[in-house]
């Protein structure tokens, strides 16, 4: 296999993909350190007038060097690409942990919240406001420590500018004053998002949610939510003070850090040594210079679904279903759905996304996983399911649908209705087709 290299970095598989960038695993050939390489197409950035946004994101990440913020190592460029070299985080998203467990223990939730507050407070001391805090943008390292990522919507206002005006972020996590279009304090708005995250960690679902955006915004503006029975009094009290719809009376960072519930088993993060932050390279990579600071030997490798091996297929086979040996959850085997398709993986994913959205559900896609969530048909309960595409043989893919949270009956109803709308991508093996014909003939 031909080595793929950018400067001193040997480049490997694609580990993430977004609208404007791919993230690849890479290794520093001089130190052996593993890194994540964010690859952006220079022409696309210029075409979509994103140069200033990318410059701001890189500058912000160089400014906020903290144990609970993903570290930016350096920025490189070729004539066609820009490479952002980041700390490689191996523990996945905090969001995935919530999906897997439904909700976390109060102890684990508090620890992640303490680390989140440490990191966000540090960003604020540097004049940086994240503006898109949510579990999908919080990563976990190999020791299970939280790392804040994705500063694409962050603000670094000029000195003297007190209020921000841009409405941005994910609706369920956005503070009510951000929705009012009257200007807002970035630090106080970030605190609201931190409170939503704490609630989600402990509950396993959102405090404010509705398929209709108008209704959702109304709930947020009035802070209409309730606590599950398992929340402790201390947690309820703190969350209530954070999710105060009035920014003037909302709790501040120093008050959160002095709260009795917050301080339990709290170990403040140790900051990095003070470093001189030079932003010259940030601006240099956007120059039209013919000289490259990265020797590019990179072949484009498309991300692809996970490939199931023979053992995986044995476990999944109906004749020898061993999954219950590894997962004791009562409804694990009963409440999951699988189907096969011979369409390309990207066609499968885009079709499922369109169908789910046409049914009124929200979707969140990362690589070949899609989370679908929303209210039940009678709009009384909330549920979410996770769909993942696997490659089981060349040109044959399997889609697995698993319940993440919510009422089992509603999830089963969704599965049936959803799959009925996917006839154009679902493949039935010849044996199934024969059974189908025999069944129809026997009814005549």
The gist of it:
The protein has helices at about 40-45, 50-65, 95-100, 105-125, 175-180, 185-205, 215-220, 235-240, 255-260, 260-265, 280-285, 310-315, 325, 345-360, 410-420, 430-440; strands at about 5, 10-15, 20-30, 35-40, 70-75, 80-85, 140, 145-150, 295, 305, 335-340, 360-365, 370-375, 380-395, 395-405. It has about 450 residues and is α+β, with helices and mostly antiparallel strands.
Characterize the structure shown.
It is a single chain. α4 packs antiparallel against α6. The chain is α+β, with helices and mostly antiparallel strands and 444 residues long. It folds into three domains: 5-88, Phosphorylase Kinase, domain 1 (2-Layer Sandwich); 95-263, Transferase(Phosphotransferase), domain 1; 306-442, Kinase associated domain 1, KA1 (TATA-Binding Protein, 2-Layer Sandwich), CATH 3.30.310. The protein is built from 16 helices and 15 strands. A seven-stranded antiparallel beta sheet has the order 5-6-4-3-2-1-9. Strands 10, 11, 12, 13, 14 and 15 form a six-stranded mixed beta sheet that branches. The protein has helices at residues 42-47, 51-63, 94-101, 106-125, 176-179, 186-203, 213-222, 233-242, 253-258, 260-263, 280-284, 310-316, 323-326, 345-358, 408-420, 430-442, and strands spanning 5-6, 9-17, 21-28, 34-41, 72-77, 81-87, 138-140, 146-148, 296-297, 306-307, 336-341, 362-366, 369-375, 382-393, 396-405. Helices cover 35% and strands 20% of the residues.
